[in-house]
Specification:
Layout lengths: L1 H7 L1 E5 L20 E5 L14 E5 L7 E9 L3 E2 L10 E2 L4 E5 L9 H4 L2 E2 L3 E10 L17 E2 L4
Antiparallel strand pairs: 1-2, 2-9, 3-4, 3-9, 4-7, 5-6, 5-10, 7-8
Length: 153
């Protein structure tokens, strides 16, 4: 029962690195990592991920590595990436998302590897569990200037 819950419903995960600072791991101590709850249920459907969500996914460079970033654009949106992305604009393909870290100076994200397939998504970060003084932190606030154009309705 525990195996099913942790692999298909929700799982606590430790966040390392500074790519999502100040939203996650805001402290100055490199030894302090946020422990977050990752909701896994239902994130393979095309419209289950939204702009502003913080997601955990398998790195396009190393599928053994899990990465945490904020969704900036979803399928159909047009993004105006930053360097080193080779194009001045790109339209997000079907079942893909554009992700970026909140900390522009310390993030390897879609500006490096392009849109990611929703098939790589493991789940959505829904809450900070530890440290206790950050329990329930509002994760919807933060992120960088998205530089996107929404599709016409």
């Amino acid at each position: 029962m525990g195996y099913v819950f942790l692999n298909h419903v929700a799982q606590p995960c430790s966040i390392t690195g500074t790519s999502m600072t100040p939203t996650l791991n805001p402290g100055l101590e490199l030894t302090t990592n946020d422990l977050v709850l990752v909701k896994k249920w239902g994130f393979k459907r095309p419209h289950s991920v939204h702009r502003g969500d913080i997601i955990m996914f398998r790195s396009p460079y190393d599928p053994e590595k899990l990465v945490t970033k904020r969704v900036v654009a979803v399928q159909g949106d047009t993004v105006y990436p930053k360097h080193p992305y080779p194009k001045s604009s790109t339209r997000i393909p079907r079942n893909h998302v554009w992700v970026e870290g909140d900390n522009a100076f310390h993030s390897i994200d879609s500006n490096d590897y392009g849109p990611i397939s929703q098939g790589l998504i493991v789940g959505k970060v829904v809450s900070v569990l530890w440290p206790l003084n950050r329990f329930g932190t509002d994760l919807s606030q933060g992120g960088r200037d998205p530089r996107i154009q929404l599709p016409e309705q």
